[in-house]
Specification:
It is a single chain. By secondary structure, this protein is an alpha+beta fold. The protein has helices at about 1-10, 35, 75-95, and strands spanning about 20, 40-50, 55-70, 105-120, 120-135. The protein has a 5-stranded mixed beta sheet with strand order 1-2-3-5-4. A hairpin with a 2-residue loop joins β4 and β5 (about 120-135). The two termini are about 20 Å apart.
Length: about 140
């Protein structure tokens, strides 16, 4: 169920240049080098799941939304941040209107800035949006 749901999320958000997060931010010292090498503006990461009872479970994902510019000037940095906010609002709208095969809607949770900085490489800002959704085994959806 988790794999299928993640694949649905990636397909839903493909117009936002999304891909799976693969540890790009683990080395905070070298985070600024993402400006030059990172193609995606949105990264999806599975964070956790927990069972509410024997069958019902909740999955939690993080969406990392990033913006960058090679320019360090305040105007370009502000423009980049505003572009990130516009992208975030469009993503939220897509997620809130989506109907997923798991039969549950997405719950948008916390949005938090996880990095913002200027280096020799330019400016990079990264926000993380927490997403949550419930799951039931498929046969429970269609009981008549």
């Amino acid at each position: 169920m988790l794999k299928e749901f993640e694949e649905e999320l990636l397909e839903l958000l493909k117009d936002f240049n999304i891909r799976t997060y693969l540890g790009e931010f683990e080395d905070v010292q070298n985070l600024a080098t993402c400006i030059n090498g990172l193609e995606a503006s949105v990264l999806l990461d599975f964070e956790s799941e927990n069972y509410k009872d024997l069958e019902n479970k909740t999955g939690i994902w993080k969406l990392y939304i990033l913006t960058h510019t090679k320019s360090k000037t305040p105007k370009h940095r502000i423009d980049a941040k505003h572009k990130l906010f516009d992208t975030l609002e469009k993503i939220d709208k897509e997620l809130l209107s989506a109907e997923f095969n798991n039969g549950f809607r997405i719950e948008l949770k916390e949005l938090k800035k996880i990095y913002e900085g200027v280096s020799d490489h330019g400016y990079l800002s990264v926000y993380a949006r927490t997403l949550q959704s419930g799951f039931l085994p498929k046969n429970d959806f269609l009981r008549i």
